[in-house]
Amino acid sequence: MTIAWCKDLETGVPLVDTQHRELIRRVNAYLDAAREGRGGEVLADTFCFLDSYVRSHFADEEALMRRHAYPGLAGHRQAHRALEAKLAEVRERIAGGEPNLLALLETNQLLAGWLTNHILHHDRRFATWLQRAAA
After folding, report:
1. pLDDT of 19-35, one tens digit each?
2. Is the residue at 135 inside a domain?
3. Could you report the per-residue pLDDT of 63-101, keeping only the tens digit for each?
4. CA-based nearest residue to 57, from 104, 24, 90
5. pLDDT of 76
6. Which secondary structure element, helix H or strand E, spans residue 101, and what is its range?
7. Residue 65 forms part of a structural domain
8. First-residue to last-residue Cα distance in the chain
9. Is 53 a domain residue?
């Protein structure tokens, strides 16, 4: 199950949308590899990418929110920290020798589910607020 980029995922904030597209592209590459039985091979690379890209993306989003005095920043930041913590937890379990199948299943659900849910709810809420504030 890959994530199809669609109009519903667009926030209208160019920087955020560009970064989301790259995240989805990379998550889809991982999900494709997992479906083909190569998930274990690309799992470490996927987490390496996520470590840097997600932190950078979250920092960019949060900077935009601070710059525009978004009242929902604290909750949004909390959602970001929760994903970072969950990713760190799964990464540690993988490093500790957890069976790859369990790690793959959890990673699939975490990435596909969290990412789309976060964009559709948290990020779009910010984008809507930003558009109204700019009007």
Report:
1. 999 988 988 888 888 88
2. no
3. 999 999 999 999 999 999 998 998 888 888 777 776 566
4. 24
5. 94
6. helix 100-109
7. yes
8. 38
9. yes
Cβ count near 61 (within 10 Å): 24
Q: What is the pTM of this model?
A: 0.84
Structural domain tally of the chain?
Answer: 1
Burial class (CB in 10 A: 0-12, 13-18, 19+), 95: exposed
> How many C-beta atoms lie closer than 10 Å to residue 19's C-beta?
18
Query: Domain range spanning residue 119?
Result: 13-130
| Residue range 99-126, pLDDT digits in tens | 566 777 777 777 778 888 889 889 999 9
Distance CA 39, CA 17 (A): 26
Residues 123 and 16: their CA atoms lie apart, in Å, by 9
Domain at 69, CATH number: 1.20.120.50
Number of Cβ within a 10 Å radius of residue 59: 11
- The type of residue at 49 is F
